[in-house]
Amino acid sequence: MKTTLTVIKADTGSVGGHNRPSNAMINRAEEVVQTGIKNGLLSDGRVTFTGDDIALLLVHTRGVDNLDIHKFAWDTFVETTKIAKSQGLYGAGQDLLKDAFSGNVRGMGPGSAEVEIEERPAEPFIVFAGDKCGPGVFNYPLFECFASPYHNAGLLLAPDMNAGFTFNIMNVNYTEGDKVICLKVPQDYYDICTLLRDPNRYVIENVVENASGLTAAVASTSRLHNIAGKYVGKDDPVAIVRTQKQFPSTGEILSPWALAHYTLGDNRGSHHVAVMPVKQNTIISYFDGPTIISAAGYCVHEGKLTEAVDFFDQPFWDYVREKASKKTLEMRAQGFYGPSMAGMDELEYTGVTENLKRLDNKFVVREKK
Ligand code: F6R
Ligand code: MG
Ligand code: MG
């Protein structure tokens, strides 16, 4: 029997601003997940938070895009929204953009990443969850760990990976449907780089191993802006990455995160800051940020999860966090000039555009002498 790993996350309200869900919300989500396990819908499940987002890791046998599982996640977030409203929390129900559930959480606000697998005898995987960033935050680390021998020594050393990986990449600004392209490394390396250099438009949807045909990674691709037609919070994506044996090792997958790469997100979703790898259940603070990513490692066996290993809760990452703070402060020192703030097409609030219209009327074109 195949096992499905589903991660669905949403911001349904938070304490103190856009900072973290309340304990009561987390407790309610945990109760609902336990009920799902008792009822047999789920074989296992976990509830975590990253900044103001609650992530549900649901294990089951119903495959991806399953109506019952998606409805379960939606209903759980309706429950946490009720708690948030009853406590007067900020942004209650923020990511539930539609009034009624209609079959699949995709296109309704919550982010989701799912993979159906034939469990290997040992099945280690990592769940990444981000806050104050868009789905393009995964472009750099996913491409590097699957395509670059700088991070993935296995590409040179392990025969299984020698044939490379296939990247399915989505144009997330196309709103009529899913517009995707399928490209492989090594042969399409430069074409993939050409797309991934623009993480606000082109986003990795999944990664498949060429030799085995097995899915190695899946990531959420939704852009709330495109669903709602206006800014309603950053997308705050999730990803599942399978590790070891025929896939990159856990350490190879974590390796690119040591860069603390710059991404668009942070305060008002409109600033470039360095991504900080953080421990599970970390809050948002400085300048409504910085952009944070958590990484939880599990093994799943016959549908049951082990405890989580909190990969960024290790002394090495203290140094990376310090580096990320320094990089963010360097960029923040430039305020709103140039690359510090998003370009016109990615500004998430409308103030600049409105003011530019007003100012444009005051511009005069000088007569030529
Ligand atoms: C970014 C984010 C925050 C808010 C900011 C203003 O994703 O959630 O930075 O954009 O706190 O929030 P509002 O407009 O809700 O007052
Ligand atoms: Mg929020
Ligand atoms: Mg969030």
Beta-strand content bin: 25-35%
Bound molecules: fructose -6-phosphate, magnesium ion
The total strand number stands at: 16
Distinct helical segment count:
9
Silhouette:
globular
- Span of the ends, CA to CA: 81 Å
Report the uncertain regions.
none
Name the helix and strand elements from N-terminus to C-terminus, one letter apiece. Answer: EHEEHEEHHEEHEEHEHEEEEEEHH
The chain-level mean pLDDT equals 96
The tally of structural domains comes to 1
Percentage of residues assigned to helices:
25-40%
What would your notes on this structure say?
This protein is of the alpha+beta class. It has one domain. It contains nine helices and 16 strands. The protein has helices at 23-38, 67-86, 139-147, 154-157, 189-196, 224-228, 250-254, 315-332, 351-360, and strands at 3-10, 44-50, 53-60, 111-117, 124-131, 165-171, 180-184, 202-209, 215-219, 238-242, 262-265, 271-274, 276-278, 292-301, 304-305, 309-310. Strands 5, 6, 7, 8, 9, 10, 13, 14, 15 and 16 form a ten-stranded mixed beta sheet that branches. The protein has a four-stranded antiparallel beta sheet with strand order 2-3-1-4, with helices on one face. It has a two-stranded antiparallel sheet with strand order 11-12. β14 (292-301) and β15 form a beta hairpin. α1 runs antiparallel to α2. The longest helix has 20 residues, at 67-86. Fructose -6-phosphate is lined by residues 17-18, 132, 233-234, 267-269, 288.
